[in-house]
Amino acid sequence: MKTLIIAEKPDMGRNIAAAIDPKAKNQRTYIEGEQYIITWAIGHLIGLAEPDAYDDRYKKWNLGDLPIIPEQFKLVPNAKTKDQLKVIAELAKRCSHLVNACDAGREGQHIFSLIQRHLKLKQPVKRLWISDLTPETIRRGFAELKEGADFEPLTRAAKARSEADWLIGMNGSRAFTTKHKELLSVGRVQTPVLALLYDRQKEIEAFQSNKYYEVEAWFEQGETLYRGLWQGERLTDGEKAKALAEKVKGKRGRVESYEVKDTKEYPFKLYDLTLLQREANAKFGFSAKKTLDLAQTLYEKHKAISYPRTNSNYVTEQNIPEMHRALDQLAKTDYRGLVEGADKKFVHKNNKAVCNPSKVEDHHAILPTHKTPGALPPDEAKLYDLIVRRFLSQFYPAASYKMHTVLTAAEGERFKSTIKQLLDLGWKVIYADQKKEKPTGRGKGKADGKEDDEESAEEEVQTPFTLDSRAAEPPGDPRAEDPPGHAGADEHELVAALVAGKRTVGGGQSAVIVERHGQRYADAVAAQLFGGSRCSAPDESDLVAAEQPVDHAALIELVIDERIDYDRRPPARTLHEEGDILHGALIMGESDDIRGADGLHELHAQLLRRRKRDAEEVGDVIERLDIAPGEQLGHDIPKPDDRDGLVTVDRPPDGLVYPYRTGCFAAKMLLDGPNPLPAA
Fold this sequence. Notes:
6-stranded mixed sheet, alpha+beta, Topoisomerase I, domain 4, Topo_IA_cen, disordered C terminus
């Protein structure tokens, strides 16, 4: 006997026949070949019976009769398609085996299960489970037919969903209608969704807009021009905003902080149905239903995409070769220019942003197939283009940027700027001819993936952005005229004053150190400068003068002679992040590879400009010195025997080390002589 194949729709039945038995004869309601008979369901042929099928009293809607809960749900044929159901029943009598070829999903499983239960079909069942309708996929699916029993859990889930819809719909609609004397429809899905829409509409109607003001400032340094956004509470007073703008207008700014970090933006996730519907609505104004209908046409009629009713944005290992093949086929289309820039090495089983079997349930993400369509109607072409471009983006590298974050002060006010400098478009070249996409899937706008609590003026630029933070004190600012070692100087000048023999510090200076590095660090600096004096509150009376100047030669001699025992390596921060001044001087000053090298001077200049511990650049120095990444170094400061004029401490407070950049300062002194460093 033959095998009866039951597809969900006539188009799918004809596609199956063409793939597995091209010579089969079309009998209008079925197609018959030597081995197979192929027919179809035309959607739902069977449904659950109305309440009055259980008891005549349910013909009238009475609140007292509720709830209606059948012990066994009855099935009834759809009157409009009952003839096709009879065809299936007759064909089943001529066949020894059945193949469930309905859509590979819960609903397709339910359609076949209803037919099987209503007609009481007892033949063994195999399941065709495929994600697209290309002939190759269909033939492979029949070669790998699965046991019908393997899908029994899916069948039970579909049955439970259907019966829950009936229970809530029938009882809820009758209850609300009889109570409110008006025909009201209640549904398991429709009612909660309607409630969400209603609540949202009420929020929109109740919303009251508040006018607020933003103050922007443009700063110029050499040929660099950048924009900053004032940092403070939201301004609702226009006069206050104007006064603030007038306060800083035409004044000089001071760069308080300047950070640069590399960041990458990865391609957005592959489409599932919901994401595709959302983007099609945003770009083209398509409704969710229209997007689904277009996707179904691309799937069923053109066989150009995989199964669209999916909730996954990922693929499995088995899909990787298919993706590579589809890429090759797209090279023969109008997408050939984009395919030329694609690289298959980015799509592999270990790329969890693409291949993640644990996040694939019934179906993988929506993909273009290797069957490319011809001329498509405009709306179908738009949707197909969305899917293809998202697919192609997975074969491109991440877009790379340098994120420049600048905090500029002017007249006591702070302005924050974020400059996003493009280094490499990467996958974004796919969308270069379109408007800028908003992130709707994977991809980070910030290197750490976190949102900034403060607002800033963000600009995206393609030209190099450079800023010299050494120009922190603008001409005309009284603080810029203070000599190193007096109130207003910062920690850079403290170190320069230390190694150059300047021994005076004021309360304003103490405040800077305490604020930026904490009290313990400030105390250690004071101990180095004054043999134990405490660097405390910002009081102008806190002016201390050391009795003797630092002997620079003795300091260098101490560094060279008193070798640090690196074999002890007590627990401490790694040199990637911090190191004390003597370590830095010893390592960098004693290295033949580094002495006088241009690279050291450039690194030193960058550290000065940026005023921050830059782990990446310090790591570069470590690599050049052949120090293993993460190697821990001792932090004891050698104690001098009895050296005149040299004041030191046995070691910093527990857990304290000096910033690594101070080591660069000392190394600079060793290389270039005891000339004071320029103020930052």
